[in-house]
Amino acid sequence: MNVDHDVLRRLSKGDQGALDLGKAAEHLVCADLILAGYRCYLSDQGLSYDLVVDVNGRLVRVQVKATCFPSNMNATGRAERIGYTFHVRRRGKASKGTRLSAEHCDVVALVALDIQAIAYRPLHEVGQCCQLMPPDHVFAGKFKRSPVVPITGLPFSEAIQRIGGSNV
User: Fold this and answer.
1) 29 three-state secondary structure
2) 167 occurs within a structural domain
3) Where does the record locate the signal sequence feature (predicted)?
4) What is the pTM of this model?
5) Which of 16, 38, 149, 163 has its CA 20 to 30 A from that of 120?
6) DSSP characters for 79-111?
7) Chunked mean pLDDT (size 10), the chain, 168 residues
8) What's the CA gap between 157 and 138, in Å, rounded?
9) pLDDT reported for residue 168
10) How many domains would you assign to the chain?
11) For the domain that residue 64 is a member of, what is the CATH number?
């Protein structure tokens, strides 16, 4: 499915658009999990999680975080480093809600809407902010760094294993 980037830009500009983008991301994650063989349900409004996934009889709560486009993650701006940034622990309008914690969800689904890619991370492994690289990213720096995981390299099955669950 092709994504209209003009529509994404327009929706990312206002409060109502942000709600629509969040809803689109939730539906995208739900479809991804159902097509991967999991039983997945959208949750009701007002709950601290967006989806519930039945993994061998255990209910796993999933919070969805979305971004429209990658941006330059290099704070100094000298060497452009394009990636997706997610403010995982923020909740509520203007980030005024309580900080996202283990009492709210088990897994976070990080969605890049422009390429319809999803990464799944256990909440206990994620800090305040999470930065993921686009698929096929090549690090061009001259210093040694740890391996970079692309946004497409974190499947739900691995997140379940890392929270102590079994795979479907």
Assistant:
1) helix
2) no
3) none
4) 0.84
5) 16
6) S--EEEEE-TT--SGGG-SPPP-TTT-SEEEEE
7) 78 77 94 97 90 95 91 70 79 61 89 94 86 77 65 93 72
8) 25
9) 47
10) 1
11) 3.40.1350.10
